[in-house]
Amino acid sequence: xxxxxxxxxxxxxxxxxxxxxxxxxxLVMQPGVDRAVVLQAVKEVTAHCAETGEHPRTAFGDPDAHxxxxxxxxxxxxxxxxxxxxxxxxxxxxxxxxxxRDVAGL
Length: 106
Description:
Elements: H1 2-28, H2 35-52, H3 56-60, H4 63-74, H5 77-104
């Protein structure tokens, strides 16, 4: 019976690690998020789960959705807005380049 408990606990820990990894990856992708924001968000999730014993999915739901919420709450609004503008310019240039390439038959 102890082996089954260890197996269950190992599976739970692996699932927690997957949730945290997904959360961090999605968080890093958000405009305005830097290392300090990621560390703060991870610290909050880790502390909550340590205090309550809850799995992050139980406490915070989907890691992608929680990453979006954490970024909106923790990332400085001016930095996020600036990065969104820069990303829009880069995306626009990429689109123009693709159209030129298509017209030129490259």
